[in-house]
Specification:
alpha/beta; Rossmann fold; Dihydrodipicolinate Reductase, domain 2; 6-stranded parallel beta sheet; 6-stranded mixed beta sheet; 9 helices; globular; binds adenosine-2'-5'-diphosphate
Length: 342
């Protein structure tokens, strides 16, 4: 009974949450197969109270796997996702490798669950910043239509993996102790320049593109259009890394296609699946990453009419990037997948 589930990147920040969430949601796992690099092979993880040995992620490790959750970087997905599919697995990929591939559905279950049916072996999990934004935009899109979105993000370091979390901790301690700091990971590990993250903000996430935007910013633009299946939505983004451990925040300006009533907007958001409204500025109630950490929902607050445009709104959207932004969304896709099969 149940499914053989591989987690690729089992030692990583997202992979660990994936395993935790599989257990928490009581996903029907017959066998868990944690996979990572050769460096981690032989180490153990605890799943449902039992030790499971991590194996090296090589093609044969996918023999007999039904569902493979990938979160070990784009190059690992490019190499191994086709191997997993060739062995009969359905891949749910958390990296950027396949998101814009026309044969690969890009899915946020609250928004476009039905797209899962079109998969040919691989289903992509969107970028963390995109996921939380589209969950909040979905009820507004359905009711009023969306003309344009201007988003600025305040993204936590956990989006860049364990090493980035460690780097922020080390730098913070060193600076408070008056010691020298080192920077080796942020903003982008593989680039040559690295900057201090502690007590700083860095306006770069992922590599530069020819148009002057970063790849992270262009992911938000392209993925939003693909998820809504609507290329007419205008999206422009500025993505910024802030010294927060966990939880991404976003300032979202949205121009709707038709007139709206602010109370109705609040009600729509209140009733939207996966959304929790925390919105009472006069009582200092609004979402913050420290409160959203370790919770699976998308939190929306600071809901207000914009006074520069008759059909525009401002929102503040916060969610745990490791959960709804990654692991939770991936497991929700897996749940939708197995319920379609039934
Ligand atoms: P490992 O710990 O063996 O290096 P994070 O996003 O937190 O940085 O984690 C990245 C995850 O991807 C880790 O689980 C890491 O495993 C895994 N990983 C990195 N490179 C490879 C690889 N070549 N093959 C398989 N897994 C990899």
């Amino acid at each position: 009974q149940g499914y053989t589930v591989a987690v690729v990147g089992a030692t990583g920040a997202v992979g660990q949450q994936m395993m935790r969430y599989l257990a928490k949601r009581e996903f029907p796992v017959k066998e868990l197969r944690p996979l990572a690099s050769a460096r981690s092979a032989g180490q153990k993880v605890i799943f449902h109270g039992e030790e499971v040995v991590i194996q090296e992620a090589v093609p044969t490790a996918f023999d007999g796997v039904d569902i493979a959750l990938f979160s070990a970087g784009g190059s690992v997905s490019e190499k191994l996702a086709p191997e997993a599919v060739a062995r009969g697995a359905v891949v749910i990929d958390n990296t950027n490798a396949y998101r814009m591939n026309p044969d690969v559905p890009l899915v946020v279950p609250e928004v476009n669950r039905e797209a899962i049916r079109q998969h040919k072996g691989i289903i992509a999990n969107p970028n963390c910043s995109t996921i939380q934004m589209v969950v909040a935009l979905k009820p507004l899109y359905d009711r009023y239509g969306i003309e344009r979105v201007i988003v600025s993000t305040y993204q936590s370091v956990s989006g860049a993996g364990w090493q980035a979390i460690d780097e922020l901790q080390q730098q913070s301690k060193a600076l408070l102790n008056g010691e020298e700091i080192s920077a080796n990971i942020l903003p982008v590990g593989k680039l040559s320049k690295h900057y201090q993250m502690a007590f700083n903000v860095i306006p770069q996430i992922d590599v530069a593109q020819e148009n002057g935007f970063t790849l992270e910013e262009m992911k938000m633009v392209r993925e939003t259009k693909k998820i809504f299946n609507d290329s007419s939505i205008g999206v422009t983004a500025t993505c910024v890394r802030v010294p927060v451990m966990r939880g991404h925040s976003e300032s979202v300006y949205v121009e709707l296609k038709s007139e709206f009533d602010l109370d109705e907007v609040r009600q729509l958001l209140n009733n939207a699946p996966g959304v929790i409204v925390e919105d009472a500025i006069e009582e200092q109630v609004y979402p913050m990453p420290v409160d959203a950490a370790d919770r699976p929902e998308v939190f929306v607050g600071r809901i207000r009419r914009d006074f520069t445009h008759p059909r525009a709104l401002n929102l503040w959207v916060v969610s745990d990037n490791l959960l709804k932004g990654a692991a939770t969304n991936a497991i929700q896709i897996a749940e939708a997948l197995i319920s379609e099969e039934k």
